[in-house]
Amino acid sequence: GYSGWAAGQLEEEIGRNGWLTVDASPAIIFDTPVEQRYDKALGLLGIDPRMLSADAGHA
User: Fold this and answer.
1) Tell me, what's the pLDDT at 26?
2) In degrees to the nearest 10, what's the CA dihedral of 11, 5, 17, 26?
3) Distance separating alpha carbons of residues 48 and 57, to the nearest angstrom
4) What is Dmax (Cα atoms) for the chain?
5) pLDDT at 20
6) For the whole model, what pTM was predicted?
7) How many DSSP H helices and E strands does the chain contain?
8) Mind listing the pLDDT tens digit for each residue in 5-45?
9) How many angstroms separate the CA atoms of 59 and 54, rounded?
10) Distance set, CA 27 to CA 23, 39, 42, 51 (Å)
11) Burial class (CB in 10 A: 0-12, 13-18, 19+), 12
């Protein structure tokens, strides 16, 4: 498959908070096994991935 962005699309999506971003952590990038990187990066944002749900609804 192929995925790509139009010119300026990614910047617009980031500006609309369509992506979670976190400052790069050399320890996560170079010293953390690949399968643990997502959880570690969420931890830098103070998010516990166990609290995330794929279900949507109304509060």
Assistant:
1) 96
2) -80
3) 20
4) 40
5) 86
6) 0.66
7) 3, 0
8) 899 999 999 999 999 899 999 999 999 999 999 999 999 99
9) 15
10) 12, 13, 14, 24
11) exposed
